[in-house]
Amino acid sequence: MAPTLAVGWFWLYPPDYAATARTAAAAAFGLANIEIGWGQNYCAPTVQNALTHTWSLGVEEQFYLLWPFVLAAFVRARLIWWFGLALLVTVGGFLWAVAVQQADPAWAFFRPDARAWEMAAGAALAIGHALWTTKAAEGEERSYPVSVAVFALSACAIVGMCFFWTSGTPHPGWGTVPVIVATLLALHAGCGVHLPKGGSAWAWAVARCGALSDALYLVHWSVFVVRRSITGLPFTPLAAVGALALSVALAWALHRLVEVPFRRSRRERVWPRYWPPSCCSWAWCWRAEKCFLEGVCRSGSLPRSWRLGAVTKVS
């Protein structure tokens, strides 16, 4: 978030930067989905928020913060009860999501209670594998070609849904079901698979893609928004490839310079090292929002970021 705010100070328009700063401040507390979804339509945004994509991280953080307490209430129960609880949350949460989506589609997109069933379905899959995988079955090797075929079909189904979804697709709700089912099948296909000889290169490539996936998700939308703010031009295939390549490069740098050192740091040294920068980043978010909302809007003066953006677009 800090690099996005730093770059956005020079290249984003004031309304866009103000929305980005507010989202960054909310994302620091895992509440980006609440801040973004309050009166905003994801499919028809009123501003170009460079941190819009952090809404999903907020939903995940809120679910994983509460889910352990739900399981702790049944800590003495057998694993089958946990599985039944996960199924109950999945089915009940889906029915609730359908009702919420019909009442207010724009707000339902960001609501954690309308999204909980999606992650509960993954929890049910994980508990199910732990429940029905016996010691005898753990030694058995699942068919590699069948698993690859199931995974490929699931991946194609997920990508194919991108061409059929429209702004009118009920989501989250019935329109989400094919994607969730395909994702569960893809996860199930990868469990207990033994790679054949010569498959180490493929496994290495998949592992590297997985290692960069989180960082790539964090940077890609910011790159797209800043690029459009600088040029003022729509995306062409060549421009999209260039933005994606830049996103991959930044994701690699973020992974190597931030994620890997953070994970390798000793537990007692992590918080003293990273707590001050986190506080400074949150303070900068708050200061940026106050600056644009109060100073710029009241005085009518244009900050340097506006002037640089305007000069770039005119030239």
Topology:
Blueprint: H1 2-11, H2 14-27, H3 32-37, H4 55-72, H5 79-103, H6 105-108, H7 112-132, H8 135-138, H9 144-164, H10 177-189, H11 200-231, H12 237-264, H13 267-299, H14 304-314
Helix pairs in contact: 1-2, 1-11, 1-14, 2-13, 4-7, 5-7, 9-10, 11-12
**Please, what is the average pLDDT?**
77
Could you give the count of β-strands?
0
Helix content: over 70%
* Ends apart, CA distance between termini: 29 Å
Written as H for each helix and E for each strand, in order along the chain, the element string is HHHHHHHHHHHHHH
In this structure, how is the largest beta sheet organized? none
Radius of gyration (CA) equals 22 Å
Report on this structure.
This protein has 315 residues and is mainly alpha-helical. It has two domains: 1-32 and 208-315, no CATH class; 74-133 and 143-193, no CATH class. It has helices at residues 2-11, 14-27, 32-37, 55-72, 79-103, 105-108, 112-132, 135-138, 144-164, 177-189, 200-231, 237-264, 267-299, 304-314. Helix 5 (79-103) packs antiparallel against helix 7.
